[in-house]
Amino acid sequence: MKKLPEITLAFWVMKIAATTLGETAGDLLAQTMNVGYLVSSLILIGFFFVSLVTQLRADSFHPALYWTVILSTSTAGTTMSDFMNRTAGLGYARGALVLITVLSAVFAVWKLTGQPFDVARISTFGGETLYWTAILFSNTLGTSLGDFLSDDSGLGYAGGALLVGGLLLLTLVAKYRTPISNTLLFWVAFVLTRPLGATVGDFFSKPTAKGGLGCGTIGSSLVLAAVLGALIARTAWQQRNRAAAQVQPEPERPDPVDAAL
Prior knowledge:
With 261 residues, this protein is an all-alpha fold. The protein has one domain. It has nine helices and no strands. Helix 4 packs antiparallel against helix 5 (125-152). Mean pLDDT is 85; it is low at 257-261.
């Protein structure tokens, strides 16, 4: 059963919107509402597991459900990364190294299982479970990388976003101009879109004194949720139209004898 979306330009636009919302929504819960990184992580990991189980039990692709799981990995990844790097004191660089190691281990296990890495061919329960595990840790890693670029590198929010955007552009060029595996480039792009979302989300939500636009986590989250909701509705509408076109009976062709008469 194919339960994952096609990888198109619309997919990447929605991925960036979801990961940016994950950054602002995670900060809204942990910082603005003062819940804290540990409790926020536990809440959002629970939300992730509930949405994931629902996705795994589904028998077809449901746009709203799929992007809910993506959003849950982004929000959980934000608070998990912040807990590791800030509360536990690892720091952004060491936190990123830990997450790179964990993500590499996930891919190693994936390789040993023999499940396909190509997302277009994932159609089993085991393959989809590995896919979502990799997404959770890739989004957590992306948060650490985004925070490192924004805070420790000296680039700031806008500079970090421009750097990651440039790397994504190079990844796109590599897809069409080099023999590098499209599957590898997909996962590179998937990881990179998370720090892009993290830096853009911080750029919108952080106060102007810290280099942001000062929109706040609430305002930024509401706007991003509206954008993502509109894109999901568009995807669902297109899916219904394609399904209707597939079941529509072909018009009857006139009998050649009757036509001659």
